[in-house]
Amino acid sequence: MTAQARSDINDKFRPPVSVEASAESSAFNKKDALALVGGDEEILQEAVTMFLGRIPAYVEALAGALKCGDFDALRTLAHTLKSTAATVGAAALRPLFIELENASRRKDAETVVPIVTQIESGFSRYRDAVSSVL
Question: What topology is assigned to 27-133 in CATH?
Protein backbone atom coordinates (compact mmCIF):
# COMPACT_ATOMS: atom_id res chain seq x y z
CA MET A 1 0.00 0.00 0.00
CA THR A 2 1.39 3.40 -0.91
CA ALA A 3 1.84 6.21 1.59
CA GLN A 4 -0.84 8.21 -0.25
CA ALA A 5 -3.32 5.33 -0.03
CA ARG A 6 -2.69 5.01 3.72
CA SER A 7 -3.17 8.73 4.14
CA ASP A 8 -6.43 8.64 2.18
CA ILE A 9 -7.72 5.80 4.36
CA ASN A 10 -6.69 7.59 7.55
CA ASP A 11 -8.40 10.78 6.38
CA LYS A 12 -11.68 8.92 5.84
CA PHE A 13 -11.75 7.68 9.42
CA ARG A 14 -10.28 10.70 11.20
CA PRO A 15 -12.95 13.03 12.58
CA PRO A 16 -12.61 16.62 11.38
CA VAL A 17 -10.98 19.03 13.81
CA SER A 18 -13.13 21.93 14.89
CA VAL A 19 -12.65 25.05 16.95
CA GLU A 20 -14.84 23.50 19.64
CA ALA A 21 -12.74 20.34 19.83
CA SER A 22 -9.53 22.34 19.99
CA ALA A 23 -10.89 24.73 22.60
CA GLU A 24 -11.71 21.79 24.85
CA SER A 25 -8.04 20.82 24.94
CA SER A 26 -5.73 22.70 27.21
CA ALA A 27 -3.83 25.31 25.23
CA PHE A 28 -0.69 24.41 27.21
CA ASN A 29 -0.07 21.01 28.74
CA LYS A 30 2.93 21.53 30.97
CA LYS A 31 2.86 18.00 32.40
CA ASP A 32 3.14 16.34 28.98
CA ALA A 33 5.72 18.85 27.77
CA LEU A 34 7.87 18.23 30.84
CA ALA A 35 7.65 14.49 30.28
CA LEU A 36 8.99 14.96 26.74
CA VAL A 37 12.04 16.86 28.01
CA GLY A 38 12.83 14.48 30.86
CA GLY A 39 11.26 16.72 33.50
CA ASP A 40 13.81 19.48 32.93
CA GLU A 41 11.98 22.79 33.52
CA GLU A 42 14.88 24.82 32.16
CA ILE A 43 14.88 22.97 28.83
CA LEU A 44 11.10 23.34 28.60
CA GLN A 45 11.36 27.07 29.31
CA GLU A 46 13.96 27.45 26.55
CA ALA A 47 11.89 25.43 24.06
CA VAL A 48 8.71 27.38 24.84
CA THR A 49 10.55 30.70 24.61
CA MET A 50 11.96 29.77 21.20
CA PHE A 51 8.53 28.59 20.00
CA LEU A 52 6.87 31.80 21.18
CA GLY A 53 9.53 33.88 19.44
CA ARG A 54 8.92 32.04 16.18
CA ILE A 55 5.11 32.24 16.21
CA PRO A 56 5.00 35.45 14.12
CA ALA A 57 7.21 33.81 11.46
CA TYR A 58 5.05 30.67 11.50
CA VAL A 59 1.88 32.73 11.05
CA GLU A 60 3.49 34.69 8.22
CA ALA A 61 4.71 31.51 6.51
CA LEU A 62 1.28 29.85 6.80
CA ALA A 63 -0.48 32.95 5.47
CA GLY A 64 1.99 33.31 2.60
CA ALA A 65 1.70 29.67 1.56
CA LEU A 66 -2.08 29.89 1.79
CA LYS A 67 -2.18 33.07 -0.30
CA CYS A 68 -0.03 31.45 -2.99
CA GLY A 69 -1.92 28.17 -2.88
CA ASP A 70 1.35 26.41 -2.04
CA PHE A 71 0.00 23.17 -0.58
CA ASP A 72 3.46 21.60 -0.42
CA ALA A 73 4.72 24.43 1.80
CA LEU A 74 1.59 24.19 3.98
CA ARG A 75 2.05 20.44 4.33
CA THR A 76 5.74 20.81 5.22
CA LEU A 77 5.02 23.53 7.78
CA ALA A 78 2.21 21.51 9.31
CA HIS A 79 4.37 18.41 9.51
CA THR A 80 7.17 20.30 11.25
CA LEU A 81 4.86 22.17 13.59
CA LYS A 82 2.88 19.10 14.74
CA SER A 83 6.06 17.69 16.30
CA THR A 84 7.12 21.03 17.69
CA ALA A 85 3.67 21.57 19.20
CA ALA A 86 3.91 18.29 21.06
CA THR A 87 7.35 19.17 22.43
CA VAL A 88 6.23 22.56 23.80
CA GLY A 89 2.93 21.31 25.23
CA ALA A 90 0.66 22.95 22.64
CA ALA A 91 -2.00 20.27 22.98
CA ALA A 92 -4.74 22.16 21.15
CA LEU A 93 -2.53 22.99 18.17
CA ARG A 94 -1.20 19.54 17.39
CA PRO A 95 -4.48 18.09 16.00
CA LEU A 96 -4.89 21.20 13.86
CA PHE A 97 -1.44 20.67 12.36
CA ILE A 98 -2.29 17.03 11.66
CA GLU A 99 -5.49 18.04 9.89
CA LEU A 100 -3.67 20.80 7.96
CA GLU A 101 -1.02 18.34 6.84
CA ASN A 102 -3.67 15.91 5.59
CA ALA A 103 -5.80 18.58 3.91
CA SER A 104 -2.71 20.07 2.23
CA ARG A 105 -1.73 16.65 0.94
CA ARG A 106 -5.20 16.43 -0.66
CA LYS A 107 -4.92 20.04 -1.89
CA ASP A 108 -8.26 20.70 -0.19
CA ALA A 109 -8.47 24.51 -0.09
CA GLU A 110 -11.94 24.51 1.47
CA THR A 111 -10.58 22.68 4.52
CA VAL A 112 -7.18 24.38 4.66
CA VAL A 113 -8.44 27.97 4.95
CA PRO A 114 -10.45 27.54 8.18
CA ILE A 115 -7.74 25.36 9.72
CA VAL A 116 -5.13 28.08 9.21
CA THR A 117 -7.51 30.55 10.88
CA GLN A 118 -7.95 28.16 13.81
CA ILE A 119 -4.18 27.74 14.08
CA GLU A 120 -3.68 31.51 14.26
CA SER A 121 -6.24 31.69 17.09
CA GLY A 122 -4.62 28.68 18.73
CA PHE A 123 -1.24 30.41 18.75
CA SER A 124 -2.82 33.32 20.67
CA ARG A 125 -4.47 30.99 23.20
CA TYR A 126 -1.18 29.13 23.64
CA ARG A 127 0.74 32.37 24.19
CA ASP A 128 -1.80 33.45 26.84
CA ALA A 129 -1.80 30.05 28.56
CA VAL A 130 2.00 29.84 28.69
CA SER A 131 2.38 33.34 30.09
CA SER A 132 0.11 32.44 33.01
CA VAL A 133 1.96 29.19 33.81
CA LEU A 134 5.67 29.69 33.11
Answer: Four Helix Bundle (Hemerythrin (Met), subunit A) (1.20.120)
